[in-house]
Design brief:
alpha/beta, Rossmann fold, six-stranded parallel β-sheet, 10 helices, disordered N terminus, disordered C terminus, ATP-binding, deoxynucleoside kinase activity, ATP binding, P-loop_NTPase, Deoxyribonucleoside_kinase
């Protein structure tokens, strides 16, 4: 009964979003964030059923083949030498994703310029992979982009995972570049994500956070993703209806993250 009502609600929202797609409104932009192996791609694939949502996956293939060079592999094998050029290229490709025009009223992005800077570049600086001068260059590029180029964000979906769980997933999916990734690296990235998106003790959080417990097996987590449909679609309608030429909030968000956990049923 509840599921039936929810589906009717989704159809109504879908019609409204379709009607708005022809306007000049900027798309309601959702960043899907999380550790390596947290299920971001699987989450985006769940939303393929909505024709009014544009899905932009992390440009991993571009990182694997820049004029024949696999920058991702080079970075993992020799991070001291390749972290700087790799992260420079990540910045360029992620900026392209942020700025890419979409014909739909909702856009879901896998990761962002923010997680690239606040989690991955920050980690490289803290553990000494990046020379302070290299970090300064990357940080100045991020600050310049953030200041001069509009990067709209309306909602962040954080796929919260336990480091040991995702480390096992990484080993099972067997991407050649990731086989050398130690558990300690996953744990450090987890802390940076938590401090940024949950604890709010580090860096600016540019939008409200919807937090999903993503420790479930990827074959079972579809039900958890279904719960996020309501939050994402409802927020999309609210934001676009309140401001036809929507602009993302300019001040950091200080409120607590919204939790969706396996024990809650909508």
């Amino acid at each position: 009964m509840i599921r039936g009502k929810f589906l009717k609600y989704c159809f109504k929202v879908k019609r409204l979003l379709h009607n708005m797609s022809g306007s000049n409104s900027k798309p309601f932009t959702v960043l899907v964030e999380g550790n390596i192996g947290s299920g971001k791609t699987t989450f985006l694939e769940h939303f393929q059923q909505f024709e009014d949502i544009t899905l932009l996956t992390e440009p991993v293939e571009e990182w694997r083949n820049l004029r024949g060079w696999n920058l991702l592999d080079l970075m993992y094998k020799d991070p001291v030498k390749w972290a700087m050029p790799f992260q420079s290229y990540v910045t360029m490709t992620m900026l392209d994703m942020h700025r890419r025009p979409t014909a739909t009223p909702v856009k879901l992005m896998e990761r962002s310029l923010f997680s690239a800077r606040y989690c991955f570049v920050e980690h490289m600086m803290r553990n000494g992979t990046l020379h302070p001068a290299q970090f300064a260059v990357l940080d100045e590029w991020f600050r310049f982009i953030h200041r001069e180029i509009p990067i709209d964000v309306d909602l962040i979906v954080y796929l919260k995972t336990t480091p040991l769980v995702v480390h096992e997933r990484i080993k099972k999916r067997a991407r050649s570049e990731e086989q050398c990734v130690p558990l300690s690296y996953i744990e450090e990235l987890h802390k940076l994500h938590e401090d940024w998106l949950v604890n709010r003790t580090f860096a600016e959080c540019p939008a409200p956070v919807l937090m999903i417990d993503a420790d479930l097996d990827l074959s079972q987590i579809t039900e958890e993703y279904k719960k996020s449909e309501h939050q994402i679609l409802r927020r999309a309608v609210d934001v676009v209806m309140q401001s036809p030429n929507k602009m993302s909030p300019k001040k950091p968000i200080t409120g607590s993250a919204i939790k969706i956990v396996p024990q809650i049923r909508l």
